[in-house]
Amino acid sequence: MFDNDRWGEIWNTLSRNKLRSFLTMFGVGWGIFMLVVMLGMGNGLKNAVLGGFEGFATNSAFLWTMPTTKPYAGFQKGRSFTFDNEDISIIRNNVPGIAVCSPQLQLGGWRSGNNVSYGGKVGAFSVYGSEPEVILVEAIRLPQGRFLNQADLGEERKVAVIGQDVVDQLFKPEDPIGKHIKINGVYFQVVGVSKKKSSAEMGDNPDAKIYVPFTTFQKAFNALNQVHWFTLVAEPGVDVGDVEKQVRQLMARKHRVDPTDESAFGSWNMQEFYGKMNGLFIGIGGLSWFVGICTLLAGAIGIGNIMLVSIQERTKEIGIRRSLGATPRNITGQIVQEALTLTFIAGYFGLLAGVGVLEAVRSVAGEADFFKNPGVDLFVALVAFAVLIASGLLAGLLPARRALAIKAVDALRAE
């Protein structure tokens, strides 16, 4: 490895065939370049998509009622029904594995806007009746003030936590904390400001939401004994799909719905959706490794072929060295070292180019929601380089065996 004469021979061999050496190294460098770029791009997409779940309880599900599609217990199909206050305690007391069971109300229904005013300014926002536990589910943070608490719920206080968009439209440049907003003629005191943690919007825009206590909402907006939907969070290690199934069965019995009527309840399982997204990116990563390694192996085969050509050109030289006492180890070391040199140089510049492209893409993409922080970590880069070196080693060993098979006498007679 540290023999200066050997390094001199390697340099002379490579420099005699500059174009051939360059094209061979380009094939190997292109392989690791493609591997690094594909893995980095996949990570950028993964960071953007899965990063959108930041702050959300990914082991959660949402359940609401829909018109029945089957007759049952004397009721005709098409019957509408709603959850009620009694359902809250029934679910909490009878379904194991639930960490959070949060009843929810929304003024005007799904994706509705409600006129909210302060002073002479008016805006349309989503108004929710919620319990304090909802902050454990939704991806929001509180840059100002506080969130709803149990005292707000028990005393039916007319308080509200408003999103950042509400602040921007109604209060700029005033501080909203302590001020009163009017929602459908009812005044609420602002006690906190919420802001979304992630780029994803699981439903309405979090920054355009207004949260008021669940009990206050029921009385202020004529929704007594109503629950529009339930937010369910499973305990660690519990599949929220199983929890959702138990709640469906329990509510079907309570509201006299055919237990086989799957359409009587609407639901959305975040855990299932998150698992599908995660599985998709695992597949993308696996495909990137497969394509990249195949490209690397193609480059290694190219090096092996070039080494075979080089051995054929140097048959007489090898014969002379064998006749002068060169051992098989010397011959093998020379050829393998030459192959590894080609591989290492090509791999280094290919890796450098790949990282450079990812950094350029990162600077161009900036803080785009659809693509975030493309790149590969050090471990992945080291693994890719190890695969590359292993390929180079194989590319040198096979031609070395061919060289050792040449008899010294035959090699000396070679033209």
Explain the layout of strands and helices.
Elements: H1 4-16, H2 18-51, E1 60-65, H3 85-94, E2 98-106, E3 114-118, E4 121-130, E5 140-145, H4 150-154, E6 159-163, H5 164-170, E7 180-183, E8 186-196, E9 209-213, H6 214-220, E10 229-234, H7 240-254, E11 265-269, H8 270-313, H9 315-323, H10 328-365, H11 378-404, H12 408-413
Parallel strand pairs: 4-9, 6-8
Antiparallel strand pairs: 1-10, 1-11, 2-4, 2-10, 3-4, 3-7, 5-8, 6-9, 7-8
What does this structure look like?
This protein is an alpha+beta fold and 415 residues long. It has twelve helices and eleven strands. The protein has helices spanning 4-16, 18-51, 85-94, 150-154, 164-170, 214-220, 240-254, 270-313, 315-323, 328-365, 378-404, 408-413; strands at residues 60-65, 98-106, 114-118, 121-130, 140-145, 159-163, 180-183, 186-196, 209-213, 229-234, 265-269. The chain has a six-stranded mixed barrel. Strand 7 (180-183) and strand 8 (186-196) form a beta hairpin. Helix 2 packs across helix 10 (328-365), helix 3 crosses helix 7 and helix 10 runs antiparallel to helix 11 (378-404). The protein is elongated, with a radius of gyration of 34 Å. The model has no long low-confidence stretch (mean pLDDT 80).
Separate helix tally: 12
Instruction: Supply Rg.
Output: 34 Å
Biggest sheet statistics: 6 strands, mixed, barrel
Number of strands: 11
Proportion of strand residues: 15-25%
The coarse overall form would be elongated
The class by helix and strand makeup works out as alpha+beta
Mean pLDDT: 80
Oligomer: single chain
| Uncertain runs | none
- Distance from N terminus to C terminus (CA atoms, Å) equals 30 Å
What is the H-and-E element order?
Answer: HHEHEEEEHEHEEEHEHEHHHHH
